[in-house]
Structures are given as structure tokens and as C-alpha cells.
Amino acid sequence: MFELMLGRMGEFDLIETFFKRPARHATLGVGDDCALLAVPTGQQLAISSDMLVEGRHFLSTVSPRHLGHKALAVNLSDLAACGARPKAFLLALALPELVPHWLSEFSQGLWDLADAHQCDLIGGDTTRGPLNICITVLGEVSAAQALLRSGAQVGDDIYVSGTLGDARLALEVFRGHLEVPSAVFDAARLRMEMPTPRIALGLALRGLATSAADISDGFLGDLQHILKASGVGATIETASVAATLASAKNCHLPLSTQLNLTLAGGDDYELVFTAPEGLRSAVTAAAMASGTSVSRVGRITGSCDLILLDSEGNHMANHFQSFDHFKTP
Length: 329
Ligand code: ADP
Ligand code: MG
Known about the structure:
Layout: H1 2-6, H2 11-18, E1 43-53, H3 64-82, E2 85-95, H4 100-116, E3 120-128, E4 132-142, E5 157-161, H5 166-174, H6 182-193, H7 199-204, E6 211-215, H8 219-230, E7 233-237, H9 238-242, H10 255-264, E8 270-275, H11 280-289, E9 294-301, E10 306-309, E11 315-316
Parallel strand pairs: 2-3, 7-10
Antiparallel strand pairs: 1-4, 2-4, 5-8, 5-9, 6-8, 7-9, 10-11
The structure holds adenosine-5'-diphosphate and magnesium ion.
Residues 15, 19, 30-33, 91, 93, 121, 123-126 line the site of adenosine-5'-diphosphate.
């Protein structure tokens, strides 16, 4: 069917065919100059944008279906970090050419994740150009409950969700810097291409976590954002962070590699958050209820330093470099 349409298909057929579905939450979705979204009394909109550029955020080898998933997942991850419930998103898309099969797969990856979180596509923009995907997500959270980076308190525990470092491991295999058994690579590649936004955990942590951020550029770098915003320091047990690397359970990796991947890997889309020591069992219950594992990896301190401890409790030098678009080569 798509092949028949190819010769005649234009910008508006493309939107109609691949990106228009009835809105469930929005008053008005795709098709007019603006979408309309009502905000219930007492709620505020949580809004965030993330852009994906080929070669920077994804490799040309990624399937369009996985790319559709990832484009939305990295955005939903920001809502998770804020403790917001997803409602809607906008999709700005630059495409070098109109390839119906690619669009069909890409939109399916997008719809599958959108449906899992009941998040409506309510509008966007479409243009010809080098492949670039920019999504803006909108979520709801009540004013008192939003999780912010600025609330960490001295004495709080520091936690991470899920597993860290596997996405970076897959990237390093692609780059030819690491070799692992194919089953390990396949699992790590899925973590890189199909990250899981921790929405349920973010919602469950409302009222418990004093601060939160999602881990996109690397654990230590994203933790530093919390420390800076909260005006505090931290002590991190690096072995507890390294232990989250799922790949290491199925192949031998030197400790130095495990540390590099988990402390500064990037592309994890897990949450780093803080909570008072007295709420440990409540945090465990929130993690269980949301079906997400969490690991306690350190503590907030009053000094403004970030101290890394090895498994014997000795200080380690922090040579770990998180991702920065203008500093990282
Ligand atoms: P305008 O010219 O007012 O910017 P467009 O003509 O670009 O609007 O888009 C027409 C309608 O299609 C709008 O409702 C817009 O939000 C929607 N739209 C455009 N591109 C996309 C897309 N990639 N995904 C979803 N909706 C889109
Ligand atoms: Mg218009």
C-alpha cells in the first residue's frame, strides 16, 4: 500500500497516515494550529524536550522501531525524574526523505511506548532535512509533589534505579573498544536502543524522595547536578554502583571497566534520587510496588565535595568524565 502512495505522498498525508490518532487526554489533538490541553485544578504541567541527532544520540544501525521507542523514552525519563504522570507529547521531525516503511516502523515504536504510558501525540512539526527528532513531553504533577534536583538534605541516602552502564558497554562494543559474548552484547544493545523510562518509580517516590534526576549523561555527572542544586556534597560507594552493571553478571569485565561504564557511562535513563535514612523501608516498598529495583549507593554530606570510596573504604581519584556535547570528543 505504501509503495503505491509513495509517488503522491506529501507532508500532510505523512502526518495523517503515521502521526494522527484520536486524542484521549487532550481537548484537541493533531490537525489544528494548536493542540488544547486542560489542566485539572491543583495540578501543574511538567514539560521537557529532548532532541535526538544521528551520530550523536543514535547510530545509523538502529532500527526505526527502536528509534521511535528511544525518542519518546528519553523524554518520558525526564517526567519520571520529576514524579510527573505522562499526558501528551509533540513531535518535531526532520527527515531527509519520505520512506513509508521507515515511518511505519518508527511510528509503531513510538505508539507502543505512548500506549504503555497513555500519552497522546497532540501535534508537532514535519520538515525535510538531516534526520533529527525532537520530542516535547507534557505531564501532570501537583505543586507540592514535584521531585526537584534541589531538595537533597545532609544525611540522606543516595539511590539509583535499575542497572547502569550497559548502554555504554554496547556503544563501546560498536566502537570496537570492547569485546563481549554476543548474548551479552544483544542485551546491552537493547538497553541502549530501548531504554525503560522509570515512570512508575517516579510516581511512587513522590512524598519520599527529597531530590531526583534522570541519568542521561552518566551517574556522577547527573548526581553533581543534584549536589549543586541542593548545595550539598556526597560520598559514593563505587562498588555498589559497579554492581548494578547487568552485563558483568554474564561475562568477566575488569573492575576498572565496570567502574567507567557505571559511573560515567551515559544513556542509562535510570533515576538517581535521595531520601531520608528513616524512609529506607518506604523506598524499598515504593521500588517493589513499581516493579523497579533500586540500589543504595551513598550518602549526602554537608561538605560540598563528591568523595568516591573503593570497596575497602579508601578514597579514589575522580577521573570519571560524564558526557558533555561540547567537551566530550
Ligand atoms: P503549522 O503550519 O501551523 O505549523 P503544520 O501545517 O506544520 O502546522 O501541521 C499541521 C498539523 O499537524 C498541526 O496540528 C501540527 O501540530 C501537526 N503535526 C505536524 N507535524 C507533526 C508530527 N510530526 N507529528 C504530529 N503532529 C504533527
Ligand atoms: Mg499553523
